User: Fold this.
Amino acid sequence: MKRYSEMTQEELFREMQHLLGESRKKHQAGFISEGNILEQKFFMAKSYTLDPQFIEIGKEYTVIGEDEEVFTVLYLNGVFAWGRFPGSTEDVAFPIGRLEKKEH
Assistant:
């Protein structure tokens, strides 16, 4: 099996469709943890379809699957955005495929 970084865009989109379908099946069958793992893989694959240049340092984003708190990006490392939630001093990372621009 290829790494996501080695896949073409077409391969990544096929993989994303497969992972999303399998995740839904696992969730429906009550295998929540397994479904969540497949969902995380989906977001990793999605991250490789995006251009990290569109993630802006210092900007606020929402993180899909997290509470509605804003996430401020401090820096990028590959397809991961590192940043903080309000009131926290701990840096955390999310694949850029999980970020959505914060609507003001």
